[in-house]
TrEMBL record:
Organism of origin: Amorphochlora amoebiformis
Record has Transmembrane as a keyword: yes
Primary localization: membrane
PROSITE patterns documented for this protein: MFS, SUGAR_TRANSPORT_2
Alphabetical list of InterPro entries matching this protein: MFS_dom (IPR020846), MFS_sugar_transport-like (IPR005828), MFS_trans_sf (IPR036259), Myo-inositol_Transporter (IPR050814), Sugar/inositol_transpt (IPR003663), Sugar_transporter_CS (IPR005829)
Catalytic reaction equation(s): D-glucosamine(out) = D-glucosamine(in); D-xylose(out) = D-xylose(in); D-glucose(out) = D-glucose(in); D-galactose(in) = D-galactose(out)
Top-level taxon of origin: Eukaryota
Protein name stated in the entry: Hexose transporter 1
Segments forming domain Major facilitator superfamily (MFS) profile: 23-466
One of the record's GO molecular function terms: transmembrane transporter activity
Keyword Ribosomal protein listed: no
Amino acid sequence: FCLLTLPFQGSAMVQGKVSKVTALLSIGLMPLTFGTAFGFAFGNIGGAMSCDAFNIFYKSPDNEMQQLIAAMLPMGAILGSLCGGTFADKYGRNAASLFASVLFVCGSVVLGMPLINIESLAPLLIGRGMIGAGAGIAFMSVPAYVCELSAPSYRGAMASSISLAIALGFFCSYLCNWLVLTDYEEGWKWSMVVPLFPSLLFFLASSILPKSPRWAILNGAGPSVPIGILQRLRTPEDDVSKEVAEIIEDVRASKQYGSVFSPTYRLASIISITVMMLQVATGIDIILVYAPQNFAKLIPSQSTKLFWTILIGGVLVLSNCVACYVVDFIGRRALLLCGSAGMSLSLIGAAMSFHLKEMSVSDVETASGMGLAGVGCIACSMLYVMFFSLSWGPVAFCIPSELVPSHIRARVVALAAVCNWVADYVVVASYLSVVSLVAEPGAFLIYAMINIFALGFVWKYIPETKDMSLEDASRRLISQKDFDTI
């Protein structure tokens, strides 16, 4: 609680300026708490569904039902994203985040119903749907909120912190599953309700953070309001008055504007939506959500299988930490290009490893009981997660908020979020069925081809926005009228 209230107390508040560390902590509170809650809620379901006690309790749900359980979260997120843009435009980014946090808390409570031995799948589906709706609203509001409060010098790192927090949530969910599912028969029930705790922190952070200065200006506030907000979040070296003047100029110049797909804004809108779709269409959730199912053919024991997911979670966290540091030095475009190439090669390697396992070419076992093909598949999975965490995971959150002008940003981000969740739903709700048709090697090769397409898209259409203000980045793209000119 002291950390949450630090930017609004003491001498820093009296002077109207804060240190850079305090500013970073303050702005990072919302993405940190939201991302951890979301990662925990999304990441724990795969381990639970692979648990024998879970399948006994729910009478062995088939692949279609397991896909539905996993996909309820992105399904709810689609609905949340549809109404999130209007909500954020009317009440503000932080108000939308507050409402999302309430849905997270309520959904986590509903997921705890198995603790009182309610054997129906309805609470599991409804609870994940509620958390999904909250995630849909939060993904629309939190990235825009963070970008609008951050200075250009560290805006990329702050936007990337969402991905880092999600990675931390996934890692914690894997660790929790390993601890409670291996030795405690009813442990999966507690795993379902644990997201309640980070959800409460998300609620607290959303309750105390200030309004977005851009949203305040868009809703008629005078210069003193955004200046007062930014003075609490900038260092003495930052020129707050100049920053507010640029925001006001951008808002005034945008009083006459068309739809998000008018000729002026079409390019920025299409790029933003495509990037958000590719973030999940590249297949990250076939690793993060279905890792226990993928490893079932490769690893002999439940405990060992869950332990390897912890290592994948560790790679996820460490790589995101690196990404938060380098995104403002290397740049968005370079990271996306390298990440797409590495992800493609990693999936091809995983497909080859699975193929060798199926053909029984590799029958040499390691000390853990895995064949060398299994070791190769897990290594490729870790490489894939590393490349994703250095590129598409964090950078995709920057692109819509940086390329789109402030007056249509909430609507474009909301539309991009809807498309992101639709793509995620397709991936999560179809993966086990795809595996049943073409097996793991075929499924991995399909996603490798999608990553190759993503590489080409970034090469041709994504501009570099490193060290640009939001206004400069959006103006640069608005000056381009079609895809052939970039």
